Amino acid sequence: MGASDTTWIAGLLVIALFISAVGTLSAVSRISATGLPTGTTQANVQSDTTISLPTSTVNFGNVVLNGNYNTTTNNPPPFVVQNDGSVNVNVTINATSLWTGASKVASDYQFMCGDDETTCPSGSQTSWTDLTTSPQLIIANLPFANSGDAVQAEIKIHVPVDEPATSKSSTVEFTASAA
Description:
By secondary structure, the protein is α+β, with helices and mostly antiparallel strands. The chain contains one helix and nine strands.
């Protein structure tokens, strides 16, 4: 192949590229683009009012008549109430009776909100309150975010002077509702 053949092929290649470019520009000019279209994505996160008790037992051990005990010193540790849901929650507390003695009074079994991951939210019960069989607010507006979603439920007992010597127990129930 000579120099003139190479020149001739290069010329044909330039003409082919020119025709291809003109055809592409012509095709693109027929497309009518009027802007940048947008779309929408939606998702609906369901409301979830789940709570858990990472610490679910309070065991005062051996106690004496007329003795006073509470969990504020972590001996024993208090209940820990944690918000595992997707919304802030209000938490109520109620319990079955702990004592059977004739001289028992309501103030012999009490509760209050205590600090754990976070300070008790405003509106929570932060002073000792009689624990009864009726639900009462203990924690108000407990956040659901993973940091600061747990507080303590402190328990205080006073052993009545005429309480029979047997093992005592009470079932404590915590209930959450959307705040």
